[in-house]
Design a protein that fits this description.
53% helix; two-stranded parallel sheet; 2 domains; Rossmann fold; globular; binds magnesium ion; Tyrosyl-Transfer RNA Synthetase; binds adenosine-5'-triphosphate
Length: 350
């Protein structure tokens, strides 16, 4: 049975990258799959330990899920900390994963800053908790932005090593499943997750620097379009977005070595549900003074209904909390099934 899982951290204002790379895919996947969408508040502690607004950020992200069209009755919307089994499985994965694997993670290198000795152990172990988020439900498909690709490869490595380390216990437990890895049949407990990272804008870049990804935690608000930005703000940010002096090329090849142009074309394509090639056949040869206003109109058209609905939902925090409570209870029931089996496989008396 396919199961979709993904998470978003309550670390700041959601932006266009989160929408195109993640949330919009969450919405599309609901049609044919059982989906679980999680506000990963425990992960947010790795960005900043003491938050004044963790609760309001958690509600705001939940509101964005709902406003974008996620159905919390057919699917499960919850916040991570209400299901303590995430932390429990993460501990076991900390003992499965190798320090050498963690040392290769580029997100840690980016976020730890210069003085790595002063980074928290939580930031270092982030990918292990993320593997637990996904594998706790034995999820098979994970819609994410391109920046999370490496963490998903690590999730597969952790699943694989658990499956091999506990092979005999899994066989005796009777909880195993037959999967194929490459072409090899393997009797496993955890499935090999598949990342879903497609589309014309898998990594939306900063509007100020085409070599850096758009991020919630970027100090410059001009670097991103927030889901809560109004028309005036969106227009200002796109007008000010960094570009080179040339016009738009007519073919994709003309975008190479032009990261800012490539980024804006990718954003347009994703918002319009077109390919980059289609966008260039429409705008090739035009100047940014023509393309940018068209992009503003398109962005406002796509985002403003979501913004309006988010604001409406956020006016009633009690309603949002009730949705999270309900989702949390349903997630806990599933999590406990897995953890009972994992405790048994590992050899804990329970
Ligand atoms: P932070 O800077 O705090 O890490 P973030 O913007 O990276 O915030 P996350 O909560 O870490 O947001 O990620 C949520 C989802 O959004 C993930 O699936 C991630 O891959 C996706 N995502 C984040 N930034 C981008 C981006 N610039 N382009 C496409 N997808 C993105
Ligand atoms: Mg991130």
């Amino acid at each position: 049975q396919p199961l979709v899982f993904s998470g978003v951290q309550p670390t700041g204002n959601l932006h266009l990258g989160n929408y195109l790379g993640a949330i919009r895919k969450f919405v599309a996947l609901q049609e044919n799959n059982d989906c679980m969408y999680c506000v990963v508040d425990m992960h947010a502690l790795t960005a900043q330990l003491v938050h004044e607004d963790m609760r309001s950020q958690t509600r705001s992200i939940t509101a964005a899920f709902l406003a974008a069209g996620i159905d919390p009755e057919k699917h499960i919307v919850f916040n991570q900390s209400t299901v303590p089994q995430h932390a429990e499985l993460a501990w076991i994965f900390n003992c499965v994963a190798r320090i050498g694997w963690m040392n290769r993670m580029t997100q840690f290198k980016d976020k730890a800053g210069k003085d790595r000795e002063q980074a928290s152990l939580g930031l270092y172990a982030y990918p292990s908790l993320m593997a637990a988020d996904i594998l706790l439900y034995r999820a098979t498909h994970v819609p994410v932005g391109d920046d999370q690709k490496q963490h998903l490869e690590l999730t597969r490595d952790i699943a694989m090593k658990f499956n091999l380390d506990f092979m005999e216990h899994i066989r005796r437990s009777g909880y195993g499943i037959d999967i194929t890895v490459g072409d090899e049949p393997v009797h496993a407990y955890f499935p090999m997750v598949e990342p879903l990272i497609d589309g014309p804008a898998p990594r939306v870049m900063s509007l100020r620097d085409g070599t850096k990804k758009m991020s919630k935690s970027d100090a410059s608000d001009l670097s991103r379009i927030n889901l809560l930005d109004d028309e005036e703000n969106i227009s200002k940010k796109i007008r000010k977005a960094k570009t080179d002096p040339d016009g738009l090329p007519s073919e994709i090849a003309g975008l190479s070595n032009r990261p800012e142009a490539d980024n804006l074309v990718g954003i347009y394509a994703a918002l319009a549900d077109k390919s980059k090639a289609d966008v260039l056949s429409e705008f090739g040869g035009q100047q940014f003074s023509v393309f940018k206003p068209a992009l503003v109109d398109l962005a406002v058209n796509v985002l403003s209904p979501i913004t309006g609905e988010m604001r409406r939902l956020m006016a009633d925090p009690g309603h949002i909390d009730a949705i999270l409570r309900d989702g949390g209870a349903r997630a806990r029931a599933r999590a406990e099934v897995t953890m009972n089996q994992v405790r048994d496989i590992v050899g804990f008396i329970y």
